[in-house]
Amino acid sequence: MKENRCAACGLIKLNRELMKFVSLPTGEFALDFKQTMPLKGVYVCAEKKCIKEAADKRLFNKAFGFDVDTGASDAVLKHVEDVYERYVYSLLRNGRGGGKVVSSAMLKDVNVISRAKYSLISGDVGDDNKSKILHLCGKYNIEYCFFKTKNDYYKNVEGKYRAAYFVLENSLAGKIKNTVDTLRQINNGSA
Ligand SMILES: [Zn+2]
User: Fold this and answer.
1) What is the 20 CA–ligand 1 centroid distance (Å)?
2) Which residues in 24-169 belong to E strands, given as ranges?
3) What's the gap in Å between 69 CA and the centre of ligand 1?
4) What CATH number belongs to 3-68?
5) How far apart are CA 99 and CA 86, in angstroms?
6) What is the pLDDT of residues 126-182, one digit of tens each?
7) Distance of CA 13 from the midpoint of ligand 1 (Å)
8) 126 CA distance to ligand 1 centroid (A)?
Protein backbone atom coordinates (compact mmCIF):
# COMPACT_ATOMS: atom_id res chain seq x y z
CA MET A 1 0.00 0.00 0.00
CA LYS A 2 1.22 3.44 -0.91
CA GLU A 3 2.42 5.87 1.68
CA ASN A 4 3.26 9.54 1.70
CA ARG A 5 4.45 12.22 4.04
CA CYS A 6 2.12 14.94 5.32
CA ALA A 7 3.47 18.27 4.09
CA ALA A 8 2.57 19.89 7.42
CA CYS A 9 3.37 17.55 10.31
CA GLY A 10 5.82 15.34 8.42
CA LEU A 11 4.25 12.04 9.51
CA ILE A 12 4.26 9.20 6.98
CA LYS A 13 0.83 7.64 6.58
CA LEU A 14 -1.05 5.42 4.17
CA ASN A 15 -2.44 7.41 1.24
CA ARG A 16 -5.97 6.56 2.26
CA GLU A 17 -5.36 8.34 5.57
CA LEU A 18 -4.13 11.43 3.74
CA MET A 19 -5.69 13.94 1.39
CA LYS A 20 -4.04 14.54 -1.97
CA PHE A 21 -4.00 18.05 -3.36
CA VAL A 22 -3.07 18.85 -6.95
CA SER A 23 -2.52 21.82 -9.18
CA LEU A 24 -4.90 21.41 -12.14
CA PRO A 25 -3.75 22.25 -15.68
CA THR A 26 -6.03 25.30 -15.41
CA GLY A 27 -3.85 26.50 -12.54
CA GLU A 28 -6.54 25.80 -9.98
CA PHE A 29 -5.56 24.23 -6.68
CA ALA A 30 -7.87 21.32 -5.80
CA LEU A 31 -8.40 18.24 -3.71
CA ASP A 32 -7.97 15.03 -5.71
CA PHE A 33 -10.61 13.22 -3.68
CA LYS A 34 -10.14 9.78 -5.24
CA GLN A 35 -6.37 10.24 -5.61
CA THR A 36 -6.53 9.15 -9.23
CA MET A 37 -5.46 12.28 -11.12
CA PRO A 38 -2.18 11.76 -12.97
CA LEU A 39 -0.73 14.89 -11.40
CA LYS A 40 1.93 15.52 -8.82
CA GLY A 41 0.18 15.49 -5.48
CA VAL A 42 0.88 17.06 -2.15
CA TYR A 43 -0.38 14.98 0.75
CA VAL A 44 -1.75 16.29 4.02
CA CYS A 45 -3.44 14.60 7.00
CA ALA A 46 -7.24 14.75 6.92
CA GLU A 47 -7.15 17.20 9.82
CA LYS A 48 -7.93 20.88 10.08
CA LYS A 49 -4.63 21.55 11.85
CA CYS A 50 -2.46 20.15 9.05
CA ILE A 51 -4.56 21.64 6.22
CA LYS A 52 -4.44 25.10 7.82
CA GLU A 53 -0.76 24.89 8.57
CA ALA A 54 0.08 23.79 5.02
CA ALA A 55 -1.88 26.72 3.57
CA ASP A 56 -0.84 29.36 6.11
CA LYS A 57 2.86 28.54 5.95
CA ARG A 58 2.85 28.01 2.18
CA LEU A 59 3.98 24.43 2.69
CA PHE A 60 1.91 23.27 -0.29
CA ASN A 61 4.10 25.39 -2.54
CA LYS A 62 7.25 24.08 -0.94
CA ALA A 63 6.11 20.48 -1.40
CA PHE A 64 4.97 21.04 -5.01
CA GLY A 65 8.28 22.64 -5.82
CA PHE A 66 6.44 25.35 -7.72
CA ASP A 67 4.17 28.25 -6.90
CA VAL A 68 0.45 27.51 -6.60
CA ASP A 69 -2.19 29.94 -5.42
CA THR A 70 -3.85 27.86 -2.71
CA GLY A 71 -5.88 30.75 -1.32
CA ALA A 72 -6.39 31.32 2.39
CA SER A 73 -6.57 28.29 4.67
CA ASP A 74 -10.29 28.87 5.30
CA ALA A 75 -10.92 28.66 1.56
CA VAL A 76 -8.94 25.41 1.36
CA LEU A 77 -10.97 23.95 4.24
CA LYS A 78 -14.22 25.07 2.62
CA HIS A 79 -13.20 23.44 -0.66
CA VAL A 80 -12.38 20.16 1.11
CA GLU A 81 -15.72 20.25 2.94
CA ASP A 82 -17.60 20.90 -0.33
CA VAL A 83 -15.91 17.98 -2.08
CA TYR A 84 -16.72 15.57 0.77
CA GLU A 85 -20.32 16.78 0.98
CA ARG A 86 -20.82 16.48 -2.78
CA TYR A 87 -19.57 12.90 -2.57
CA VAL A 88 -22.07 12.03 0.19
CA TYR A 89 -24.89 13.56 -1.87
CA SER A 90 -23.84 11.66 -4.99
CA LEU A 91 -23.83 8.38 -3.02
CA LEU A 92 -27.31 9.18 -1.66
CA ARG A 93 -28.61 10.07 -5.15
CA ASN A 94 -27.17 6.96 -6.78
CA GLY A 95 -28.38 4.78 -3.91
CA ARG A 96 -31.85 6.21 -4.29
CA GLY A 97 -31.83 5.43 -7.99
CA GLY A 98 -30.62 1.90 -7.25
CA GLY A 99 -33.08 1.30 -4.43
CA LYS A 100 -30.32 1.13 -1.81
CA VAL A 101 -31.31 4.40 -0.16
CA VAL A 102 -34.80 5.38 0.89
CA SER A 103 -36.05 8.64 2.33
CA SER A 104 -38.04 9.27 5.49
CA ALA A 105 -41.17 9.05 3.30
CA MET A 106 -40.76 5.27 3.79
CA LEU A 107 -40.76 5.48 7.59
CA LYS A 108 -43.96 3.47 7.88
CA ASP A 109 -42.72 0.56 5.80
CA VAL A 110 -41.26 -1.77 8.42
CA ASN A 111 -40.03 -4.22 5.77
CA VAL A 112 -37.85 -1.51 4.31
CA ILE A 113 -36.73 0.38 7.41
CA SER A 114 -35.86 -2.81 9.30
CA ARG A 115 -33.19 -3.48 6.63
CA ALA A 116 -31.52 -0.09 7.07
CA LYS A 117 -27.84 -0.01 8.07
CA TYR A 118 -27.23 3.70 8.43
CA SER A 119 -29.28 6.86 8.63
CA LEU A 120 -28.49 10.47 7.81
CA ILE A 121 -30.85 12.73 9.72
CA SER A 122 -31.13 16.37 8.76
CA GLY A 123 -29.79 18.68 11.45
CA ASP A 124 -32.90 20.87 11.37
CA VAL A 125 -35.48 18.11 11.63
CA GLY A 126 -38.50 18.96 13.81
CA ASP A 127 -38.80 17.43 17.29
CA ASP A 128 -41.67 15.13 16.31
CA ASN A 129 -39.89 13.62 13.30
CA LYS A 130 -36.65 13.48 15.20
CA SER A 131 -38.07 11.35 18.00
CA LYS A 132 -39.77 9.05 15.45
CA ILE A 133 -36.54 8.57 13.52
CA LEU A 134 -34.39 8.09 16.62
CA HIS A 135 -36.93 5.59 17.94
CA LEU A 136 -36.66 3.55 14.72
CA CYS A 137 -32.86 3.75 14.79
CA GLY A 138 -32.88 2.38 18.32
CA LYS A 139 -35.45 -0.30 17.55
CA TYR A 140 -33.69 -1.64 14.44
CA ASN A 141 -30.17 -0.93 15.64
CA ILE A 142 -29.47 1.57 12.84
CA GLU A 143 -26.38 3.69 13.22
CA TYR A 144 -27.08 7.35 12.46
CA CYS A 145 -25.60 10.80 12.18
CA PHE A 146 -26.98 14.30 11.81
CA PHE A 147 -25.91 15.66 8.43
CA LYS A 148 -26.81 19.02 6.87
CA THR A 149 -30.37 20.33 6.52
CA LYS A 150 -33.63 19.45 4.79
CA ASN A 151 -32.96 22.24 2.32
CA ASP A 152 -29.53 20.77 1.51
CA TYR A 153 -31.17 17.41 0.84
CA TYR A 154 -33.80 19.19 -1.27
CA LYS A 155 -31.16 20.84 -3.42
CA ASN A 156 -28.67 17.98 -3.66
CA VAL A 157 -30.48 14.68 -3.38
CA GLU A 158 -34.09 15.09 -4.45
CA GLY A 159 -36.49 17.93 -5.05
CA LYS A 160 -38.53 17.30 -1.93
CA TYR A 161 -37.88 18.25 1.69
CA ARG A 162 -36.82 15.14 3.55
CA ALA A 163 -36.12 14.65 7.24
CA ALA A 164 -33.75 11.71 6.78
CA TYR A 165 -32.33 9.06 4.48
CA PHE A 166 -31.86 5.39 5.30
CA VAL A 167 -29.12 3.36 3.62
CA LEU A 168 -30.15 -0.26 3.14
CA GLU A 169 -26.95 -1.76 1.84
CA ASN A 170 -23.86 -2.52 3.89
CA SER A 171 -21.09 -1.40 1.57
CA LEU A 172 -22.85 1.82 0.63
CA ALA A 173 -23.57 2.50 4.30
CA GLY A 174 -19.87 1.98 5.05
CA LYS A 175 -18.78 4.38 2.30
CA ILE A 176 -21.19 7.08 3.45
CA LYS A 177 -20.30 6.63 7.11
CA ASN A 178 -16.55 6.84 6.36
CA THR A 179 -17.00 10.00 4.34
CA VAL A 180 -19.14 11.67 7.02
CA ASP A 181 -16.71 10.56 9.75
CA THR A 182 -13.72 11.97 7.86
CA LEU A 183 -15.57 15.23 7.35
CA ARG A 184 -16.26 15.36 11.10
CA GLN A 185 -12.62 14.60 11.85
CA ILE A 186 -11.48 17.43 9.57
CA ASN A 187 -13.92 19.89 11.14
CA ASN A 188 -13.29 18.93 14.74
CA GLY A 189 -9.53 19.10 14.58
CA SER A 190 -8.16 21.97 16.62
CA ALA A 191 -7.50 25.15 14.71
ZN1 LIG B 1 -0.21 15.98 9.18
Assistant:
1) 12
2) 29-31, 41-45, 101-103, 118-121, 143-146, 164-167
3) 20
4) 3.30.1230.10
5) 20
6) 999 999 999 999 999 999 999 999 999 999 999 999 999 999 999 999 999 999 999
7) 9
8) 39
